[in-house]
Design goal:
By secondary structure, the chain is α/β, with parallel strands linked by helices. Helix content is about 40%, strand content about 10%. Strands 1-2-3 form a 3-stranded parallel sheet, with helices on both faces. Strands 4-5 form a two-stranded parallel sheet.
Length: about 190
Amino acid sequence: MDEVKDYPNYKFVKGNICSSDLVNFVLENEKIDTIMHFAAQTHVDNSFGNSFQFTQNNIMGTHVLLESAKVHGIKRFIHVSTDEVYGEQRLDQEAMDEEAVLEPTNPYAATKAGAEFLAKSYHRSFGMPIIITRGNNVYGPHQYPEKLIPKFINQLMRGRAVTLHGTGANTRNFLFVEDVARAFEIILFKAEVR
């Protein structure tokens, strides 16, 4: 944040996404017209041990943002989801079909699917301008050490075996953080609500 802290269009507000009082205050006080909702508990492995925190932040937090956005007449709500909502990708499958039925296979994915359904319901029920994105594993500098790439690097540098789930035949897609930032910049300035 040090790189942007002195910009006139930057303001950091520390708070809880589940606090409707805070969210309403910020939306009104800062005259917000667009929400890019990145806030979430994201580490899949952690969702197996403390799934309540994932439900609270990913579903309830999204609901608080949506309700506040509705009340304040937000012009666009960009909801950042995940490809995890689709479930497991088959080995013979090249890519996921965005029209596929959501089949989350872990608590994290289930909370992100639940948040998506809330966002869709606000679009259908209240005509809110919602855009949903479903990216996948982002990697790059300064990533949390529990994420796959830094975790594997740390394990290998210490001479340890890497942690594998299942048979090890699983595949994952990755996106470099700078590519993701450019994609969200395009979404922010050029995406249209359908």
